[in-house]
Amino acid sequence: MAESGFRGLIADHLVYEYNKESSQRLRALDDVSFTIRQGEFVGLIGHTGSGKSTLVQMLNALMKPDSGTVYYDGRDVFEKDYDRKALRGKVGEVFQYPEHQLFADTVFEEVCFGPRNMGMDRKQTELSAYAAIKKVGLPDECFDQSPFDLSGGQRRRVAIASVLAMKPELLILDEPTAGLDPLGRLELLDMITELNRDSAMSVLLVSHSMEDVAAYASRILVLDKGRLIYDDTPAEVFAHYEELQKLGLAAPEMTYVMNGLKAAGMDVDTSALTPDEAEESILRALRLC
Amino acid sequence: MGIIKTNKLKYEYIRRDEDNNVEGITTALDGVSLDIKAGDFIAILGHNGSGKSTLARHINAILFPAEGTVVVDGMDTTDSSKLLDIRRTAGMVFQNPDNQIIGQLVEEDVAFGPENMGVPTEEIWQRVAESLEAVGMTAYREHSPNRLSGGQKQRVSIASVIAMHPKCMIMDEPTAMLDPGGRREVIEAAHKLNKTEGITVVLITHYMDEAAGADKVIVMDKGRIAMEGTPREVFSRVEELKSLRLDVPQSTELAWRLKKRGVDLPDGVLDRRELVEALIRVYKRNK
Amino acid sequence: MLRDITLGQYYKAESPIHRLDPRTKLAATFAYLISLFLFKNPFVYMIAGGVLVCVIIASRVPVRYMLKGMKSVIFILLFTMLMSLFFTKGTVIWSFWKLRITKEGLSQSAYTGLRITMLILGSNILTLTTTPTRLTNALERVMSPLKIFRVPAHEIAMMMSIALRFIPILLEETDRIMKAQLARGADFESGNLFKKVKSLIPVLIPLFVAAFRRANDLAMAMEARCYHGGKGRTQMKPLKYARRDAAAYCLLIMYMALMIVTGLTLKSTPKTEALPAVSTNMISVSSDTLR
User: Fold this and answer.
1) Cα atoms found within 13 Å of the Cα of residue B251, Cβ hemisphere only
2) Domains, chain B
3) C177: distance to nearest CA of chain A, Å?
4) Which other chains touch chain C, taking contact as 3+ CB pairs less than 8 Å apart?
5) Does some domain include residue A66?
């Protein structure tokens, strides 16, 4: 199949098992299907051991599913002659604690690694690396510094830049804010949103923080014990906050507040997910009386 | 006098270049004076680089003050003859769950501290059993630590500390690498030990919601104590907290915003339950 | 999964072999391995094999676990056996093209095969019935007389157990870093050797950095828990000889005596070529093929 019309990624009935030989088979992924269209900002939530990491590694062909497959721009990425290296440039993946994978002498060299591997020539590589370092908001002095001399938050930005420099069409981020302090977290998420908006890059954000996912994603996937149980807008997904709670997943703080108020008879909007939305809705409800 | 007392504590990191010349000096702690009462649960908040971890390491005599003093249960940490006594009095739980478990089995790790202290064999067994029971990890005593979840590993680390029968436990960002479930497990275990065993807990964190249950909250910034008080006192100063790069819990923030816009809410709302109750009161009064 | 490496190949069971002091097992394994090289005679091998079967039964470790350990060496075993089968000089009993099987080769091959099999099964019993902790503990105690020669027995044992604890963690870390670099377009497979080695730099540097960071953290955690070397240290699980260990030592002495007596009195086969001859044969063969 050459160019079909669809642009983006399709996960098609993915199944994966651990410990295949032993008696304690562990189904890490159980028939998972979804699509990510170009330009979308999708959140993926699920607790540790829900199969998130396994799933995320399949989307750029680092792991092969037992059955099912992944299509990118209409082509099966596990086909024999598919160029999976090029795929990893298009589907950029930032792992957890990505600063632990830095190795080069200078920040600039580090960021050039990806585009060079993608076969860009020297000029393209350097332009792309320069643009990526600028995009993540690192100052000019950083370029020639050793990545190991930077602060933790800055190192993480270098790692993200090193993936961005490959000019991905879809960026997957696995817990990008883990270990950062609140301001660092906010800056990083805002930066990702900007990339999504300005360059039409799709984003898949994997996170434990319901508040983050609720505030940034336009669609949410919820994974539990390897099964995709919800694939919907944040408001729709968090309307099931009681079911989520039973699975050991929480809903955003505001969902609980609004549902608590509603239960007491206040006419508030329970789909409010951020303090901003909640504030307006509560004020409206109080004035009505 | 309290169990942990620091007086005008100062500590500096000296940065050196490749030829060992001094490049600059970073002041990590700048005149910190603390007095922690035995049996208290203290939360120390602060963003990355505020000096909170450096402070923790002084209490356990891993770092020593450049100026000022640290006294733990009457012992000055610079008194090298008291080093082991200080470390057993103030046990320490670190951030990375993988890098502090020494034993190959859960029970062997818990035994490591008592073994170093020269506790007789039968008593080690008793202490291991008690400590694992206290953190609810008895069922895992013969498991390999590698197969536990992050929260379980941190509970093992807590058990390893209390097996040394310390008077206080210093926890240096024990939840920074855990998921929400693991965070809850660890904080609950710390509160339980504080209540039932009377162990003084010093919890260092950058998650403000973890501080809500503490007796006292200390906020650090640039090596100094920026705020100090009960959680309610500290949580009511939302603007100040935000300027110190702290993550104010959303319910606290919402209460503060609504109050600013004229809703009659109390100061320093700690969690969503308090917020909902207060709002319902307002709603009923209006009606 | 990688995480299982921690416990080595330890197979949990209740058996007299499991309960033995690890020092006893260490001594017995050592003696058994030596006994296999003392004589080359079918009766000696029959005794050694019989004892091995008895111990395996007593250990209650399922035979398939025993054989699992053989899997990794099966190639070497077959290779050595074939080498001795075809390249031992003596009376030819069968030949085809350049291949000749001699009578001596046949017996040599059988001996070599038996010897390697028993060697591996014998040492497998030790690791299958003893936890790595108890094993390092035993090594520390066995090495402790060497302290007079300034051998840091405690430190060596502590290093071994820390290594055992961190090997699986570092293996996982390697896997993680490799995947992260693959995601950045790294290629570990194509190219010549030089290129392949060079492609590993983005894996090795982060791995070293991580190992140092962990070592640093661990040292601090150990110090915080009052670690100050082996002096004045007590143990949760100290090694204590029991009566069954005395019995085991008696059996071991009886076994060694029986082996020596049998080996000296019953000489059934004429001594042909010993193992070194075979190995020189092997070397010349392999250098031939190289040319």
Assistant:
1) 24
2) 4-248 (3.40.50.300)
3) 6
4) A, B
5) yes
Q: Of C14, C30, C55, C27, which is closest to residue C246 (Cα–Cα)?
A: C27
Query: For residue A188, is it within any domain?
Result: no
Domain residue spans of chain C:
2-290
Q: Which residue of A has its CA nearest to B241?
A: A182
Is 80 exceeded by the pLDDT of residue C282? no
| Secondary structure class of C151 (helix, strand, coil) | coil
Asked whether residue A155 is domain-assigned, the answer is no
| H, E, C per residue of C166-200 | HHHHHHHHHHHHHHHHHHCCCCCCCCCHHHHHHHC
Give C170-194 pLDDT, tens digit per residue: 988 999 999 999 999 998 887 788 8
* Least Cα separation, residue C89 to chain A (angstroms): 45
CB A113 to CB C176 under 8 A?
no
ipTM confidence score: 0.89
pLDDT in tens, A61-98: 999 999 999 999 999 999 989 999 999 999 999 999 99
| pLDDT score recorded for residue B121 | 94
Sign of CA dihedral B247, B252, B258, B264: negative
> A11 phi and psi, to 5 degrees?
-95, 125
Which residue among A89, A101, A118 places its CB closest to the CB of C180?
A101
The answer on pLDDT for A22 being more than 70 is no
pLDDT in the model for residue B7: 92
A101 with C206: Cβ contact below 8 A:
yes
Question: Does residue B91 have a pLDDT over 70?
Answer: yes
Q: What are A191's two structure tokens?
A: 């930066």
Say how many C-beta atoms besides its own lie within 10 A of residue C208's C-beta: 11
Q: Which residue in C has a C-alpha nearest to residue A62's C-alpha? A: C179
d(CA B227, CA A43): 36
- What 3-state class would DSSP assign to B62? coil
What is the number of structural domains in chain A? Answer: 1
Q: Nearest-CA neighbor of A132 among A186, A191, A52, A83?
A: A191
Interface of A with C (CB under 8 A): 18-19, 57, 60, 62, 85, 88-89, 92-93, 95, 98, 100-103, 113-114, 116-118, 148, 162-163, 166
CATH value at residue A76: 3.40.50.300
Q: With a cut of 60, say whether residue A188 has pLDDT above it.
A: yes
Backbone angles phi, psi at B174, to 5 degrees: -70, -15
Least Cα distance to B151 among B163, B135, B169 occurs for B135
| Residue A174: inside a domain | yes
Please list every residue in chain B whose beta carbon sits closer than 8 Å to the beta carbon of residue C6.
Answer: 104, 144, 146
Contacts of A185 in chain B (CB under 8 A): 247
Q: How confident is the model at residue A248 (pLDDT cuts 50, 70, 90)?
A: confident
pTM assigned to the model = 0.85
**Do residue A275 and residue B250 have CB atoms under 8 angstroms apart?**
yes
Domain that holds residue A12: 1-82+169-183+199-234
- pLDDT of C114 higher than 60: yes
